[in-house]
Design brief:
Number of domains: 2
Family: Belongs to the TMEM186 family.
Membrane topology: Multi-pass membrane protein
InterPro entries: Tmem186, TMEM70/TMEM186/TMEM223
Shape: elongated
GO cellular component, one term: mitochondrial inner membrane
Strand order of the largest sheet: 4-3-2-1-7
Subcellular location: Mitochondrion inner membrane
Largest sheet: 5 strands, antiparallel
Number of helices: 6
Helix content: 40-55%
Order of helices and strands: HHEHHEEEHEEEH
Number of strands: 7
Length: 182
């Protein structure tokens, strides 16, 4: 059997996130869950739907304006709503993609599996070596903060999780990765 260190150096030389069959086939133990991730997923998909509807409505409104059937006020109002929906979609997805829904540890406690949402509201798993994950103290956060950062030493990418809204399922595994919570 190939060790995590060998696989890490062979497969992931220089890459910030990695995923391959050796890691995805292992049995992982859940250490953290955010029950509200399903709500965030629904909001993310509804935001996509809202943006699609406003983009579909805009061409007929422009067509009717050219025909002289509707006033300019309605065209500007519809265009403003479409632009606002696009900006809000980008802003919401920027936030939702960084919220951690679940975290798991492999049996050897050397690999952390982090689940978060994609732009489309689907689940995406990334696999991180525990040695690359910063403890809560290293990120500059306090354990009393509502939202905590999941940062790595090798990448500027930041994810967010909350022990107030989320639930630590395995206290020992969580402490192995992030340090003590007191």
């Amino acid at each position: 059997m190939v060790t995590i260190e060998e696989t890490w150096s062979r497969v992931c030389s220089g890459s910030t996130t990695w995923r391959y069959s050796d890691l995805s086939m292992e049995k992982y133990t859940m250490i953290y869950t955010l029950p509200h991730i399903k709500l965030l997923r629904a909001v993310s998909r509804l935001k996509l739907l809202q943006t699609a509807i406003t983009v579909v409505i805009l061409p007929p409104v422009l067509f009717f304006y050219i025909q002289g059937d509707i006033p300019f006020f309605l065209v500007s109002y519809t265009t403003g709503i479409a632009l606002f929906a696009g900006v809000m979609l980008y802003t919401a997805s920027h936030f939702f993609r960084r919220v951690v829904g679940m975290m798991y540890l492999d049996p050897s406690r050397t690999t952390l599996k982090v689940s978060h949402l994609t732009f489309w509201g689907r689940r995406h798993d990334i696999y991180l070596p525990v040695s690359d994950v910063m403890t809560i103290g290293d990120t500059g956060d306090s354990v009393n903060e509502t939202i905590l950062k999941l940062k790595r030493y090798s990448s500027p990418q930041t994810f967010y999780f909350s022990t107030h809204f989320g639930r630590v399922v395995d206290q020992q595994g969580f402490q192995k990765v992030f340090g003590t919570l007191k």
